[in-house]
Amino acid sequence: MSHSSPPLRIITVGHVDHGKSTLLGRLLYDTQSLSHEQLVSLHAASAAEGKELELAFVLDAFLEEQAENITMDITQIPFRTAERHYVMMDAPGHKEFLKNMLTGASSAEAAILLVSIVDGLQEQTRRHLQLLSLLGINQVIVVINKLDLIDFSQEAFEQASHLTQQLFEEWSLPVPQIIPTAASLGENIASLSSQMPWYQGQTVLQSLDALTPRISLKTAPLRFVIQDIYPSGKFPLVVGHVESGSLSLSEELVFWPQGSQQRRTSVRSIEEWGASSSPQCAFAGESIAITLEDSIFVQRGDIASNPQELPLQRNDLSIRLFWLEAMPLLMDQEMFLQLGTQRIPGRVTCIENRLDPNTMTLIVRSPRSLHQHEVADVRFHVCQPLVFDYYEELPATGRVTITNEKGLVGAGIIIRQKNESRS
Amino acid sequence: MKHLDLLESKSIYLLREAYHLLPRLCMLWSMGKDSNVLLWLTKKAFVGRIPYPVLHIDTTYEFPEMLEFRTWAQGYYGFELIIKINEEARAGRGAYASSIGYETHDPVTVTHELKTVALQQCMQERSFDGLITGIRRDEDSTRAKERYFSPRDVHFKWDYKDQPPELWNHFSIKKWPGGHTRIQPLLDWTELDIWRYIEHENIPIPQMYFARNGKRYRSLGCSPITKTIESHASTIPEIIEELLCTRHSERAGRAQDHHERNAMQKLRARGFL
Questions:
Q1: CA distances for B4 relative to A90, A278, A406, B190, B195, angstroms
Q2: According to the model, what pLDDT value does residue A3 have?
Q3: Hey, which of A93, A106, A122, A185 has its CA 20 to 30 A from A387?
Q4: Whole domain around residue B232: which residue ranges?
Q5: In sequence order, which residues have a C-beta less than 8 Å from that of residue A299 and are 6 or more positions away?
Q6: Radius of gyration of chain B (CA)
Q7: Which ipTM did the prediction report?
Q8: What integer pLDDT is reported at residue A362 of this predicted model?
């Protein structure tokens, strides 16, 4: 189809008012990425709020956001450099909007973490970093912002930079690149600053272009998540999404849960409407429709693998869980665990190791509840076996969400317990 | 995976989830380029079928060429077409003291009454609980903040201050009396993506997008408030070339968007797409 690669998805994170929206606004402005009409409404909105030129308003489109100078929800903006395409996502820095930050971050491949040199590392700086680590986003560019407010002091930058590095080391994250900026003035954003001759590293724009896209999952084990079965004459269509790996014509598939002999058959055809010739294989990332050689029982929620690389299935799991909902998580409450298209009732049977996001230290061992925005390792029991992989082995089938009558209330990754083997 | 393949796959996934999760689903169709891409993706998602009704909100200010395309496309694709007009508003009957139209009212009022309210009437009459739309994030700064599955209450209110989290292709459906869920499979697509996909797949679209006598329509809406742009792009590759160079935004020619500061936010908070 098109020869271009998918855009790299980047999220800006960090504490409230450290300059996330301004940085993105400045990046778009300095690279001439804004249309004539966007510039006109940017000037009009700035004037209406009594400001000279408020670059954050490019992203903060709601009147409430502009009046209060905050970001409420994620904005996603396409952006291109000579090097490649991006989708820039601007996350809110307020604690009450963490679920919005998480929504954006769940699809990001890399992040820009902003730290104001005036305030230093704050609560949301740490929380956001914790969530990035939970989501497996390990490419992080750190921007120490607002250097203009401290006369572009090299000494202050080096101190802040040192503290940030320490934080990354404490959490066993790779040491990031750290850039001193003044986003509102455009210093070190798209071009090197004349105010900071002591900094000769990359600009924010250059460091974005130096990021590496995630590697393809084509060669990983096959995990074909079944969405639905559509009637179609003698051979019903099994439709779904290839999360990882690949499948091809006549290849044997094993359907899970069970994965027993009765749940094995081969691919009869791969169907594509409008295709001049029917496809011979399908790869990770594709939404496909196939027919099967034998009429075996398949339903939504099933996962197909190949016979060599099998997923796990269990009733009891260890999950590193982030709780989103205002009502705390209590043990033994009924809720649903979702992975792929599986949705299975179950409950938390034990909460272990609740962490303080501020210090990343243990607050309570074995607490009875988990409060909003807290992270803990929990044991979860589902009433039917869940088909999964450990997140560290196959992230696409190692992450879960939790829902109850309030909607989506928790998100987490499946971790290996000590002494837990694959068998 | 290539960029367009990935976009197509994601949209197909969303359409199939919508079809599974929402028993009374319909799809909006304005006959514009994005709408026709949606129809095409539907055919792909359901391997040749269009399993839900297709809804055109007719403001009675449609371009004649668009109406011709509507008739042609219905025959070509073979879907159930619902055409909805807010008759009371046009005639000045019932709740309306006088006739609503561009001749007498501002574009924001007309858009609300003839599009949003007409849509509300239809959703209620047919008890739809899901509405597939073709909006994209790059069209407008408030659309840039949308979710793939977006809940609306009985008054169509968009609660943009408290949108549900969406992670890893997991969507929760809010069930409330008279409310519905909007499914927005084209959010990630840009205007350029749409054109490249139309070119690649050879998707039928109205001819008004192509330049005639130095002018063409970049975005299509109601005839009295939709302006042409200066252009000599008479083929899709020429349109793509033009878009790569332009400094103007796609909806610059749509009067209702620019009527006042944050006109789109106000329209959208009340249920407009």
A1: 24, 19, 35, 11, 11
A2: 47
A3: A106
A4: 191-257
A5: A226, A229
A6: 18
A7: 0.93
A8: 64
- Look at residue B31 and give its three-state secondary structure: coil
Number of domains in chain A: 3
Low-confidence ranges of chain A (pLDDT < 50): 1-3
From B1, B4, B170, residue closest to A283, measured CB to CB: B1
Q: Would you say A202 and A188 are in contact if contact means Cβ atoms under 8 Å apart?
A: no
User: CB–CB of A85 and B2 under 8 A?
Assistant: no
Same domain, A286 and A195: no
- Angle, CA B142 vertex, CA B137 and CA B144 arms, to 5°: 25
A271 & A317 share domain: no
Q: What pLDDT, on the 0 to 100 scale, is given for residue A360?
A: 59
Nearest residue of chain B to residue A7 (CA atoms):
B3
Q: What is the pLDDT of residues B32-91, one digit of tens each?
A: 999 999 999 999 999 999 999 999 999 999 999 999 999 999 999 999 999 999 999 999
Whichever domain contains B37, its CATH number is 3.40.50.620
Whole-angstrom distance, CA of residue B246 vs CA of residue B233: 12
> According to the model, what pLDDT value does residue A364 have?
66
Q: How, if at all, do strands A342-356 and A361-364 pair? A: antiparallel
Which pLDDT value is given to residue A422?
A: 56
Tokens of A309: 């690389």
Nearest by Cα to B34 from B244, B206, B267, B261: B206
The total of structural domains in chain B comes to 2
Q: Which of the four pLDDT bands, split at 50, 70 and 90, describes residue B141?
A: confident
Among chain B residues, the shortest Cα distance to A64 is held by B161
- What mean pLDDT is predicted for residues B155-168? 90
Task: Report the DSSP beta bridge partners of residue B106.
Answer: none
Q: What is the pLDDT of residues B184-198, one digit of tens each?
A: 999 999 999 999 999
Q: Are A398 and A349 in contact (CB under 8 A)?
A: no
Residues of B in contact with A285 (CB under 8 A): 1, 5-6, 9
Predicted confidence at residue A1, as pLDDT, reads 40
Cα separation, A61 vs A76, in Å, equals 11
Q: Tell me, yes or no, if B159 comes closer than 8 A to chain A by beta carbon.
A: no
Q: What is the largest CA-CA distance in chain B?
A: 56
Distance CA A188, CA A142 (A): 13
Confidence of residue B263 (pLDDT cuts 50, 70, 90): confident
Verify that B168 and B219 share a domain, yes or no: no
B46/A77 Cβ within 8 A: no
CA distance B138 to A72: 18
Q: Which domain holds residue A186?
A: 8-209
Distance CA B120, CA A113 (A): 43
Structural contact between residues B187 and B59, judged by C-beta atoms closer than 8 angstroms: no
Contacts of A274 in chain B (CB under 8 A): 43-44, 201
